What we know:
The protein is an all-alpha fold. It is 93% helix and 0% strand.
Amino acid sequence: ILSEHTSTLTRLRTTITDARARANLLSTVRSDIDAYHTHHPNDPGSQEAEYMLDERARIDRSHDVTDSVLSQAYAVNEQFGIQRETLGNVQRRIVGAASQVPGINGLIGRIGAKRRRDGFILGGFVAVCVLVLLWVM
């Protein structure tokens, strides 16, 4: 558990550092473009640069949303792993408790045999239905 938390902390620190670096870079570029605009207000090149800057901002917002969705997906995947481990532990405990009680293994075996038999019956029924459907067509 400690190694998982350590890796998560490292990943979060890296993400924060990358976000700060990106924000610093964008603020520097924006300040340079703003300084250019103040010196050349009616220049068509400045209008194009402003359009490109706005387009860049839209792309950055799109990337931020994508990063957010991906981080949520990774978090959900991690939670699924934790739930899988929890359910595996519960199953092991139930099997351990069932092995302690006499007669439970026989009952579980009969339930499993009935499920297999029901599966074969259902599979046969579906196969017959498909064959009748093919024969009618």
